[in-house]
Amino acid sequence: MVRKELINLLEKNILLFAKLSERINRDMISFGDYSRQQAQFLIRLYLGGRVRLKDLAAREFLPAPNLCAAFRKMERDGLVLRTVDENDRRNTWYSVTDRGVALATRFIEMFHNAISTIFKDIDKNDEEELIKSFKTMNGILTKMENKNA
Hints:
- The protein has 149 residues and is mainly alpha-helical.
- It has two domains: 23-118, Arc Repressor Mutant, subunit A (Orthogonal Bundle); 124-149.
- It has six helices and three strands; from the N terminus they run H-H-E-H-H-E-E-H-H.
- The chain has helices at residues 2-28, 36-48, 53-60, 64-76, 98-118, 124-148, and strands at 51-52, 80-84, 92-96.
């Protein structure tokens, strides 16, 4: 019975977070000439650092060709640098350029501001309870991720 309750609560929370995320991305953040997916990939690449395409694809649960297509415009615009590994030409490395760092940090700042706006009127006790709950949840999910990595 506990597992069923866990699954139901997780399902409800995933849907609520998805709705909240959609609201933030649709109403509060301007990605300019880039799709939301491209902006998210740029942020993840910025936060994760230089990475091989195949490792990034595995981390994002996407086929490598899809990532190539998503990065193509950003590469042309000087946001992402693609280099072929000289020791193993099958490997392609991606990193964020200085211009890409500036844009990624701007997207992150917009995201933080949007979250602040959404929670600006939250009751102090509710905020403290959410913080406590999120810390617990993050700890458990991190353990699960590390165990399955």
